[in-house]
Fold:
Amino acid sequence: GEVGSDVPLMCNGGFCRLTGIGENIERINGAEKMFNIVLYCGERGVSTAECFKLFDEKCPSFAFSPSDNESIASALKSGQARETALLCGNALTEFAAEIDDSIYTRMEALKEAGALNSFMTGSGSACAGIFENKAAAECAAEILNKKNRGKAFALVTVPNGIKII
Structure:
């Protein structure tokens, strides 16, 4: 099977800005601070092709609210979890949620478990929340795994990828 163009980045890790269809990779130097994240996976996936098809149909001019990439890069470099979290989002969320209506539920559950902010990853259906510290992330993952559907994992970023904590 085929893999996405961003898979090599995921294997190497670190913080980067991807442009094009993910083939242009620019490292964000100076972003070595660790961030505590909970990845909350749904029970089913979202077809990337189907998600982008919905996006293309509903946004033919590609007019949507783009991220403020300069601010995000600056926040990552500063290592401030709260500032970084508040800037995170995903333009594909509403389209992926049409395919998997549990996405918004998982994003809300992450916030209720203490995430500074939550957002969908990629084209769905995994969601993530950024937490103030390791203990808060571990506690949130435990709560989510006991009370909700899906599977939650506490992660910490490292300069060359992530590791499960």
